[in-house]
Amino acid sequence: MTTALQGKIVAENANLKEEIKALSRENDSLKAKIVELEDKLGLNSQNSSLPPSRDIYRKKGKKKSDKNPGGQPGHKAHKRELMAADEVVSCIIDKICMCESKVILEDEIVHQKVELPEIKPIVTEYRLQRGRCRVCNKRITANLPQGVTRDLLGSNAKTIISSLSGFFINSKREVQQILSSIFNLNISLGLVSNTERRVSKKCASEYERMKEELQGSEYLHIDETGHKNQGKRGWSWVITNKALKLLKVTESRGKKVLKSLLPEYDGIVVSDRYAVYNYFNRENRQICWAHLARDFERFAHSKNVEVSKIGQALKSLSNKVFVVDKAKKQNLIDNLRFYRLMRKIRKRVKHFLRKMTRVVNSTQASRMAAKMLRSEDMMWKFLRKPEVIETTNNLAERQIRRYVIYRKNSFFTWSERGERFVERMLSIFLTSRLNGQNPFQKLQNLVAVTA
Question: Positions of the region Disordered (predicted)?
Fold first, then answer.
């Protein structure tokens, strides 16, 4: 074999080796991309922030129980309490039995029958005298009595209409039909809308009072969800503690919303890892562990074997956080035991997150773990005051659910006026429920100030 031919073969062999290396690198890259896409395809409400309605594959229902429907033996009974009677009717028995013996009275059985009266509008007609001055020809009309406004409906009617739409999530046309069918009151759709506007103005001062009170709260839970106004993208924010709930509907999901609602707030904020909450001092932020658990669940279901293994470990640790926290709240463990257990869990979580950042061929999981490590101190703020600071943001998520139901029924809002009505009504409704109050009576008091 000639030297030239031998050199040519060596060169071709070197080129083939380089080509094989390039193809191998490309193959590894494509495999990693496939794993990443498969992980995205596996996203659902259990391992991400997607709502259950977005789940493509639903889990099968639970296995049918062998128990009979209804209350089970040994369960605590719930009975209706007797109401104050408007009329008492005594039902007597014969004092002589069928066997002609004397009957001895022992006690009485109470049976109540409840009926609702026929609902009929009470119409008060005001006839205003009108005249004209003989000298200046000026027309003079009598005034309505004090407290009587120029619109058609009284305070109770306004409260009922606004409650039906704002509290109990009926459309304007449904409110119109309810008023006609049950209350025997026929009004136009326009009057339903105008009544909402008038009641919304009555609630403005109460809404502002709630906002000011929240600014002085020791802690707050915050969350947000999508909204639309005339088809344009918007957001609905919820800010709550255990006594107050404030809903804010706006077009923005940015920091300017937090700046307008909570300027210079220095209390504890419980939220998810959304970057806009960096507006608050990181020393006072608690990241929701329910969201972290979903992220760990996502790792655990990864097609990448190493990511899945680390995810399973993190998932187990997140479950331990909930177990230990619950044990502390139920006084099953003392403070010393609580802090020792949490310190061990924290150390292990940090270890596995660091390990995740070093996983090869898993850019997305590594990047997410790195972000978690940067906010690792905000995952454990509840250790400062475990009796006050919650490990999760479930309080805000439970409250925002009412708005989500409203959104599904009403197909969003169509004006700025509608947004103000929704946020004020739902804020009053949910705050009243948090405090065990009757939201209808609360609204009735606000509207009756000047009907």
Answer: 43-79
